Amino acid sequence: LKPHDWYRPEAGPRYLQLRNRLSEGVDGGLLAPGSPLPPEREIATITEFSRVTVRKAIQSLVDEGRIVQRQGSGSFVASTPAKVNQTLSRLTSFTEDMARRGMSVTVQWLERGFFMPTPEEVDALSLKDGDSVARIARLRLADGAPMAIERASLPTDILPNPLEVTQSLYAVLDAHGTRPVVALQKITAVIVDGPDAALLDLAPGSAGLRIERTSSLASGRVCEFTQSLYRGDAYTFVAQLRLQK
Ligand code: 16G
């Protein structure tokens, strides 16, 4: 048997035939990473498949993470974010880290204001009974590609006006003289699913890194508790180790 005799991409269910053609379009560079897919109707006309088949083919590529769907703006060819080598020895901000690499930073706000703290926040920030918490949760993008979902919680006297944060939290804290000087960071491997996967443009079931940062002022007071979910394929964390005797 020659390969052609058993490998026939045009065989199998119709939606898989179309899926293969679309997939080849992506691999062949016809559909560039990040570019929008033509509307379903148009794909159906060009390829002579039904709208139902087109929808099924697109859905199977969405499930594989090759195509991403954004609410209100349609389907796009997935773009793999640049891989970032991030050192684990300096207390820097996301904005600074990306700026150093010449990448542009944007944000999609998820939450920003005062909230009733969760027991975890009460514990991490040593809040008193009845205290509320300043919380800013956002999707962080570099050069337009989603990198992480970050949910930062701070005591209200440290961040009296959460709306002041339009881009960099640490720049705002710096201006108030409350930028943290030391932090404890924990990194755990997780599976990304549901709405988190959609926000990060990941296929459900992809690898992610859950990162928790607890930062303190020079006085030792905890001023920031941030829980983040980073794309597993976007980061390599690097630490230098020394022999200690
Ligand atoms: C980093 C920190 C996060 C901090 C943020 C401030 C990690 C895992 N997290 O993303 O804790 O709140 O920087 O960045 O490194 P910003 O000043 O750009 O808002």
Would you kindly provide a written description of the structure presented here, covering whatever features stand out?
The chain has 245 residues and is of the alpha+beta class. It has two domains: 3-77, Orthogonal Bundle (Arc Repressor Mutant, subunit A); 84-238, Chorismate lyase (3-Layer(aba) Sandwich), CATH 3.40.1410. Helix content is 27%, strand content 33%. It is built from eight helices and ten strands. The strands form three sheets. A six-stranded antiparallel beta sheet has the order 4-5-6-9-8-7. A two-stranded antiparallel ribbon has the order 1-2. The protein has a two-stranded parallel sheet with strand order 3-10. Helix 2 packs across helix 4 (51-63) and helix 3 (40-47) crosses helix 4 (51-63). The protein is elongated. The N and C termini lie far apart (65 Å). Mean pLDDT is 90; it is low at 1-7. The structure holds 2-acetamido-2-deoxy-6-O-phosphono-alpha-D-glucopyranose. 2-acetamido-2-deoxy-6-O-phosphono-alpha-D-glucopyranose is lined by residues 93-95, 150, 152, 168-171, 211, 213, 226, 228. 2-acetamido-2-deoxy-6-O-phosphono-alpha-D-glucopyranose (16G) binds at residues 93-95, 150, 152, 168-171, 211, 213, 226, 228.
In summary, what is this structure?
One of its GO terms (molecular function) is DNA-binding transcription factor activity. With 245 residues, the protein is an alpha+beta fold.
